[in-house]
Structures are given as C-alpha cells and as structure tokens.
Amino acid sequence: MTMKSKKVKNNNTIQHSNLSDLRNEGIPFDSHIFEDIHINKSAVERRVESLGGRRSVKKEWQAAWLLKAISCIDLTTLSGDDTKGNVHRLCAKAKSPVRLDLLDAMGMKEANIHVAAVCVYHNLIADAVNALGNSSIPIAAVSTGFPAGNIPLEEKLKEIELSVAAGAKEIDIVVSRNLIIQSDWKGLYDEVSACRKACGEAHMKTILATGEIGTYTKVAKASWVSMMAGSDFIKTSTGKEPVNATLPVSLVMIRAIRAYYELTGYKVGFKPAGGIGKAKQAISWLILIKEELGNDWLTPELFRFGASSLLGDIERQLEHFVTGRYSASYRHPMA
Q1: Which domain holds residue 256?
Q2: Parallel, antiparallel, or unpaired: how do β-strands 269-271 and 233-235 relate?
Q3: Is 8 among the domain residues?
C-alpha cells in the first residue's frame, strides 16, 4: 500500500497536560446546594441537537481530534468470556493503538500515542499488570458489584481494597441506584464517601447508571452528591444498561461539574461509557467538553471514553485520511 504523507494539524492537542490542581477532596454534605435544581429537558435536548450543525471538523483537523480521542479512551473488556489471552491482546493494543505505518504517514510516529487506561474485572487485574509491564498506562478495575451494584456496602468496600492491592490505580464504582431513585441523597453521599476512603490513592470514578435513573433532575442531583463525596470522575453508565451514554445526559453532568468547580475550585473528570462506537460520536463529545468546560478538560486526566469498539473505528477513519480509502474492520484488531 502506498502511503500518502499527511500531517495532522495542532499536534500539541494530543499531549497530556500536567495539571497542578488538587485532587477533589469533596465537601461536607449540604442538600441546600442542589435541592432547588430543576432541569429543563427541552432546553438540554435543544442544546445538544445544535452540535452537529454548528461544528464540523474535516481532513487533518479531524485526524488531530481523533488522535486526541484515542488518548482519552479507557480501553475496556468486560465480558463474561474474558480470558488472560483477551486481556493480553487488549493491553498490546492499548500500548500501540494505531498502526505504525499510519502514524508515520501522519508525522506522528514519535508522539507516544497510547490510550488513557485499560479497564478490566477484578480477577483479571494481575493479567493486565503482567501484560502492561513497565508501561505508564494505568489499570482501571470495575468494582462494587459491577454492573448492578446490589451487594452490601461492606462487600463493596472489600472489593475496592482487593482491587487496589492487586494493582488497580483507578476504581470504577457502581452506586446503589435505589438511593438515587428514592432521593436518599445523604445515603448516597455516605456510600460514595466510604468508597472513596477505601480507594486510598487510587482515583475513583463513580458510575451513576443514568439510563436507570429516570429524570435529568435526578441525574444532576446525583452528580452533585457524588462530587461532594469526593469522586475524581463521574461516569454515565456501566455499558450494561438498555440506555447508556447520551449527549443530553452528558450535558447535564458536565454542567454540574462546571458549577461544582465554580463553587469549590476542584476539577472533577467526566466519563461517558457505553454505546460510543463511532469516531463521529467521539468528536461530538470532545466538542461538547471543549465548549462547556474548556481545554483544561480535554485531557485524559479529566476526560475519558469508556469504550471497546470505538478505537477500531477511529483507526479505520485515520487510514481513510492517509490513503483515501476505507478498509475492512478486521484490519484493525480489537475493533
């Protein structure tokens, strides 16, 4: 195959930032901060519908955005048939997510592009540690009775501690949805606070499972409570619900993050997960983050995609950028 020499624009957009901001330590529970929140559903949906029509990136600019998206992916395998071999292939792809011939053609061979993290079940953490070796890519483990979260709190905390001890640097916890549905905000705060303490130095992403919450108003309030309790990230979904990450629910959570930052000075990260499998979708989320939160959040320290198939489609789009032709998906492993 003859490779065209094409350079991506704004190469610095894929560099990881060195944020000096403090980790979110949380604040004391105070329902007065969020109790009067009421989300206008029509306004939210009108806002996100405008994204596609107002913003369009093409050619080398699109390639740059897609490389940025790769650097923000939590490359994930959370299937019942996961094996040691699956995890080793996933980790190999995490370290080298784009074919070297494509990177070379874009002038990005020396850019050290890799995904943000590898996400696995607890019992496969050791395999991921072995496969990643000396790589700087952290391991994220789903915990607390993922995906339903319907186990006693004591078992949730023990599972977190075991995952951290096994080598996980990030923990994706699942909150008890009944606490949100019943508006037991103090109960939710106490649960998330306890999980944060169990995480120790490991960063904690709190999964709200928004597809099972019911209203945008409850999503906003659950976002606030989770951040008040010390979450480093708030995350839309487990990827196992009938409805997972959507742009409207993401906007609600992002604006809660912005308001929390304005109140406390703490920058909390955001992670949409589940159902994001196309490069075009990834760009829509990146644009939303840029417009609502600014460039500081366009880093893996503050923004992640929870995805498995997304990387394959991005690599396919990058090959089209270089060659002008679309290839079959089997040319891009782990798609």
Answers
A1: 30-331
A2: parallel
A3: no
Report yes or no on 179 lying in a domain. Answer: yes
The packing angle between helices 125-132 and 84-95, to 10°, is 40
Report pLDDT digits (tens) over 247-295.
999 999 999 999 999 999 999 999 999 999 999 999 999 999 999 999 9
pLDDT surpasses 50 at 2:
no
Is residue 232 within 8 Å of 24, Cβ to Cβ? yes
Q: Which residues have a catalytic role annotated?
A: 172, 235, 271
Q: Which of 37-41, 78-82, 143-147, 254-258 is predicted with the least confidence, judged by mean pLDDT?
A: 78-82
Query: Does residue 20 form part of some domain?
Result: no
Cα–Cα nearest to 103, from 116, 112, 94: 112
Q: Are 8 and 67 in contact (CB under 8 A)?
A: yes
What contacts 77, CB < 8 A, 6 or more positions away? 86, 87, 90, 119, 120, 308
- The answer to whether residue 285 is domain-embedded is yes
Confidence of residue 56 (pLDDT cuts 50, 70, 90): confident
Flag whether pLDDT at 1 surpasses 50: no
Total of domains in the chain? 1
CA 27, 28, 31, 33 dihedral sign is negative
For 208-238, write each residue's pLDDT tens digit: 999 999 899 999 999 999 999 999 999 999 9
Residue 52: the pLDDT is 66
Indicate the burial class of 33 (C-beta count within 10 angstroms; 0-12, 13-18, 19 or more). Answer: middle
- Answering whether pTM is above 0.85, one says yes
- CATH assignment of the domain containing 135: 3.20.20.70
